[in-house]
Specification:
Mean pLDDT: 92
Radius of gyration: 20 Å
Structural class: mainly alpha
Number of helices: 12
Shape: globular
Distance between the termini: 57 Å
Number of strands: 0
Largest sheet: none
Length: 298
């Protein structure tokens, strides 16, 4: 009995690493917030549609991350941070991972297509950008590959929004895309600085390796300014209310402050990293709450 539980626990841990379950949860969360932000009335919400959507997106996102690890397992085996992943450890073969990945992706896309073809098309575009262009080309050849790689990373909330409103050129969709896009640069580059030697072993020319610490921090600062600026002017795109005032505005100021502290003492990287991640959830959560408080009031 104890051996069986230990084996099950090991399998679940390996599955969680293979699918990058933490990031998948983040994808589902941001996509859900995009969906709720784009609903035009309370009566438009359908529990069955929403959960079917989550199931489809879970399969596509998990399959995409499995495919990524099958594509990069040789690089992962060279890096301390990633050598414990299931494929480098021999817990699953690259071929098995490819089969599992394509099974997940195709099934998930079918689920999404049944709900809304535009949503399925955006999910397919995300996989194509991430697993083909970014993984095979941009990441390996460009010091600024993360900027282009932020394009698929910015699409999950737009995918969610498209389920409620397939017309994508709405103020809400524009805000969702750019807030996710701008957030990714400081989020990724501070990790790239932290794990610079790992990326060097893997042969990945991230910005800190190609241009050094000062240039990376300078470019991070530009994105922090743009990110916080978009947060502050978000009422131009969204219905802003009390949640905007008590959540997003103070957090924009806090991000500026934490980034300034990081530039003076880079050992405080974790504080900035955590705060900018918290701020993103707040910047997506606040407009949803403001909109739904308004809908409940009418």
């Amino acid at each position: 009995m104890r051996y069986g539980l230990h084996l099950l626990s090991s399998v679940l841990r390996a599955y969680g690493k293979l699918t990058k379950s933490g990031i998948v949860f983040f994808v589902l969360l941001t996509a859900s917030l995009g969906y709720f932000l784009s609903l035009q009335s309370l009566s438009d919400y359908s529990r069955s549609v929403f959960f079917f959507f989550l199931a489809g997106l879970y399969l596509v996102a998990s399959g995409s991350f499995i495919l990524n690890q099958a594509q990069e397992w040789k690089i992962d085996s060279k890096m301390k941070r990633t050598r414990g992943r299931p494929i480098p450890k021999g817990q699953i073969s690259p071929f098995q991972s490819y089969v599992l990945a394509f099974g997940f992706i195709s099934t998930g896309l079918l689920f999404l297509f049944i709900l809304q073809p535009v949503t399925a098309g955006l999910a397919f575009l995300t996989v194509a950008l991430y697993n083909v262009l970014y993984t095979l080309f941009w990441k390996k050849q460009m010091s600024h590959g993360a900027v282009l790689g932020a394009l698929p990373g910015a699409l999950p909330p737009v995918i969610g929004a498209s389920l409620a409103d397939p017309y994508l050129l709405t103020p809400e969709c524009i805000y969702l895309f750019f807030i996710m896009f701008l957030w990714q640069m400081p989020h990724f580059w501070i990790l790239a600085i932290r794990h610079k030697e790992d990326y060097k072993k893997g042969g990945i020319p991230v910005l800190p390796l190609s241009y050094g610490f000062d240039k990376t921090v300078y470019e991070m600062g530009l994105y922090v300014i743009a990110y916080c600026g978009l947060v502050l002017i978000s009422p131009l795109f969204l219905r802003a209310g009390v949640m905007h005032l008590i959540l997003t505005c103070p957090l924009a100021v806090k991000i500026f402050y934490e980034f300034y502290k990081y530039t003076k003492n880079n050992t405080q990287w974790l504080r900035f990293f955590l705060w900018i991640n918290v701020s993103l959830i707040a910047c997506l959560f606040a407009p949803v709450m403001d909109k739904w408080l308004f809908l409940w009031s009418i």
